[in-house]
Amino acid sequence: YIDDVYFCMGAPEEDEGNVVGRVNAKGDLIIATCDNLSEPGAGGMRMVNDPANIKEGSGAWWVKDNNLIVMNVKYPEPFNVAKYTNGYLHMWIWVESLANLKGYQFELTSSGGYDVNEKNWSDFLKKDGWNEIYLPLKEGGETGGAFDPAGLNYIRFYCFANEGSNIFYIDDIYFTNTKK
Predict the structure, then answer these.
(1) Taking the CA atoms of the chain, what radius of gyration do you get in angstroms?
(2) For the chain, which ranges sit under pLDDT 50?
(3) How many alpha carbons lie under 13 Å from residue 123 in its C-beta half-sphere?
(4) pLDDT for the residue 26
(5) Taking phi first (over 0 means left), then psi (-120 to 50 degrees means alpha), and beta for anything else, what does residue 33 get?
(6) CB of 85 within 8 A of CB of 123?
(7) What region, left, alpha or beta, does residue 38 occupy, with left being phi > 0 and alpha being psi -120 to 50 degrees?
(8) How far is 21 from 11, CA to CA, in rounded Å?
(9) Amino acid 160: pLDDT
């Protein structure tokens, strides 16, 4: 499950120029709240409003599927995340059955789609249920050329199930320079 991914569009900070996401009081750049499906670019997800399946805010995104499970967002305007290159991408992900996964990956791209100018991470889920994730931007793999942190415009989480279906929630996706 992937829960509480928020896309907050707002005025850029004066010192950042092209930042399209909201920067909260802690200095974190919110790229997805997951509180609703009307956030820019949200596709392939459903909403959950049950408080038991939400980590932050009033909702979470979720998907259930057989074999290949994909959640992706293509942003209409790019985010400039350059000030977080020594920091982390944070999110909460709930997984029904970690043992039923053949593989999974979270991706950021500056190409508007997957597998080009991509930064990616695998093997970060630790247990069934909720996992709080901090992906270091200095780490992770690259596919199809270097990711441009000044032009983040696409995110994707996908996985393969061994058999049957699996369920994921995602919530509270943001960039931060510190682990909380």
Answers:
(1) 15
(2) 1, 3-20
(3) 3
(4) 85
(5) alpha
(6) no
(7) alpha
(8) 8
(9) 85
* Element containing residue 60 per DSSP (H, E): strand 60-79
- How many other C-beta atoms can be found within 10 angstroms of the C-beta atom of residue 118? 23
Predicted local distance difference test score (pLDDT) of residue 110: 97
Alpha helices in the chain (DSSP H): none
Report the distance separating Cα 25 and Cα 10, nearest Å.
14
| Measured distance CA(50)–CA(15) in Å, rounded | 38
Measured CA distances, 105 to 19, 23, 121, 139 (Å)? 25, 26, 6, 14
- Please tell me the distance from the alpha carbon of residue 46 to that of residue 114, in angstroms, as a whole number: 21
Residues in contact with 25: Cβ distance below 8 Å, sequence separation at least 6, in sequence order: none
Confidence (pTM): 0.83
